[in-house]
Amino acid sequence: MELTQLEYFLAVARTEHLTKAAETLSITQPALSHSISKLEAELGVPLFERKGRSLQINRYGTMFAKHVEKILQEVERGRKEIEESVNPDSGTVHLAYLNILGVDLIPRLVRDYRSANPKIAFELTQGDKGAIQEQLENGYADLMITSERPVSDAYDWVPIRLLPLYLAVASDHRFADRASISLTEIVGEPFVGLKSNCGLRDSLMTRFQHMNFSLASAYDAEDLQTVAGFVAAGLGVSVLPQTAGLNLDGLRWIPIQEEGWVWEVGLHLRKDRFLSPASRRFVGYIEELAGALSR
């Protein structure tokens, strides 16, 4: 059963005349007659009583027409919803992002973008690295903002922000008054780290391995806010970006002497994934930000 068959049937049901219905639909009368006969054969019942070229809808046709009306109405609603969703001026951007970015970066991005594009809507999902990656892979999100560059060529990466990383210590820690520090000095210090499902953790572990030393891990927390809380409580030190949501009372932020200790945040998108015009326009906005970042 095809959608055009249902549209043809409804036109005939309304006019009860093959020639008039064919003219309305801009098709030939034989083609319309064949479509109706095929539909009746598929349903196993006649839908009209035939009187030459005039038809009279019967009880089966009346019964079926009520459902066809609803089906075609829903199809039209769906078409309009998709049309509105992909409109570059009034569509919806489906975006997944890391939990920590919901404190500062994402609200500002959405605010700034919507100030210039007030009819754009955002469908937002937040979570840890694994959760938002799953959203992107399954197509529930078109775009993902995270802190780890993609390892697969199936993705594009657009950098958004580079934040310096600091050694975070409690205000009464022996390093608290240092103007800067080499990370080689924290060997043996209790370290508050992150569990595996976090992009920042993987980046930190790679850097520490390149420095050829291991950390005395005291605690592994679920998120950056918890890490900051444990550090402020004097339960260890950590390496963190000094971003909104982490500036707790009782923390000291010490610049790291070694080069390259930065936290990069960027946009992931699949190269093979259809992007609505609204999402493409948002990607263009992020690319403009990336250009400003590189200058």
TrEMBL record:
Keywords: DNA-binding, Transcription, Transcription regulation. It comes from the Bacteria. InterPro entries: HTH-type_LysR_regulators, LysR_HTH_N, LysR_subst-bd, WH-like_DNA-bd_sf, WH_DNA-bd_sf. CDD domains: PBP2_GltC_like (cd08434). Residues 1-58 form the HTH lysR-type domain. The keyword Transport does not apply. SUPFAM superfamilies: Periplasmic binding protein-like II (SSF53850), Winged helix' DNA-binding domain (SSF46785). Belongs to the LysR transcriptional regulatory family. This is LysR family transcriptional regulator.
